[in-house]
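Ligand: zinc ion. Inputs:
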Amino acid sequence: MEFQNTPKIELHLHLEGAMPPEFARRLADEKNISLEGVFDETGGYAYRDFWHFLEVYEVATQVLTGPEEFARLTKAVLEQSAQHGVVYTEAFISPDFCGGGDVGAWKEYLAAMQQAAAEAEAEHGIKLRGIATPIRHFGPEKAKAAAKCAAETSGDFITGLGIGGDEKAGKLSDFSWSFDCAREAGLQLTAHAGEWGGPESVRDALSLNVERIGHGVRAIEDAELVKELVTRDVTLEVCPGSNVFLGVYPKLADHPLVRLMDAGVNCTVSTDDPPFFHTTMTKEYQDLATVFRFDEQVFLDLNKMAAKAAFCDEDTRAALLKQFT
Ligand SMILES: [Zn+2]
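Predicted complex:
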């Protein structure tokens, strides 16, 4: 498969959202958990639209009952990513799903995942960093507990705070306490915006002083905002396949990735929730090559951009930049 072995950096991947369907079925069988309505007739995840996707996602995550299950998930996801040439990945990990916001429980989950990540790195050479991620539609109070978990474990594994979930639930500025708390603990910041919400949602994210924005592509609808992203050196975690699959854009040719890049915005490419959106990093590269004629040099530049924007220590960054020169 073309581009499968091309080295890649992925910055926007939800750990639970990357769960292979067969992995979910195996765990559900082991634990006698019903996943009724989660799969379609072909065995993939089934849902009608983005909001139904969020529901199915939460049902599927019921199989992840403890640290051991998250460790197995981490291993399975990293193996899957490594098969597609990913050498460095950052995953959104939610303290809400890992201990319900309790710091002690969260630490146990993290220890199990970090061990699994170390094994995957030894076997496949892939590196993982975690971005602790409150769920937006659970509200600002729950987010505070998640942010405290993140702050307590800020270090060489948990390197960032993000926020995911329903973009239409409340304003991001309502979460400023959580983002301030994380920044003070040395974490870097990203927030989902500009996918379902328009330019105003991207401005809302910028008010949190984030270094990156998850998606952010609808900034293209506002020329002043595009200039602001360039001036502030903000990086977008662009997930073209996810956007097309969920209907943010009718087809890839309509996607603003190239227009954003031409305007000087830092852009990177990721899959978001690959089995849910029937994509992989290889497929993303293939589709971009087909539709926009991206070649090896463009992918090299995108990965260099990703290395610069990665939430990692400077030694790891230098090694990544060396790999992509
Ligand atoms: Zn996402």
